[in-house]
């Protein structure tokens, strides 16, 4: 009981060392980030990062007929030759699960919304629950170039 009280006291003491200002965005003089700058906004999809072309997973073909599809944030992307991009995400085995995507492009951004779900052909099957790192190639109107690639919702 005494160690619990000591631990609680330590937590309270350490909690008083940080800023209580919810608008605090770090040290304006030095530009240093505060710990709260590193916390993602709840409910927002992660910002994907670019990876090399050798970082491929199990290939998924867009356009599958899906049951109970849901938006699935992708974790990384790869610019491919021409007007193509590969997005990398986690889903289930390709024997039971499929993926599809929509792309919205502007001069500044490429927003990809990936949806995954059970394949129509597997809706009455027993499927194993195992995570698979998947890759899906998509056609763009123009090369990625310097545009920012983002998750859609």
Describe this structure in words.
- This is Large secreted protein.
- The protein has 153 residues and is mainly beta.
- It has a domain at 45-151.
- Helices cover 9% and strands 36% of the residues.
- The chain is built from 1 helix and 9 strands.
- The chain has one helix at residues 2-15; strands at residues 49-50, 58-59, 66-71, 76-80, 84-91, 97-105, 109-119, 132-139, 148-151.
- The longest helix is centred in the N-terminal third of the chain and has 14 residues, at 2-15.
What is the strand and helix layout of this fold?
Blueprint: H1 2-15, E1 49-50, E2 58-59, E3 66-71, E4 76-80, E5 84-91, E6 97-105, E7 109-119, E8 132-139, E9 148-151
Parallel strand pairs: 1-4, 2-8, 7-9
Antiparallel strand pairs: 3-7, 4-5, 5-8, 6-7
Key attributes of the depicted protein:
about 150 residues; five-stranded mixed beta sheet; four-stranded mixed beta sheet; about 10% helix; about 35% strand
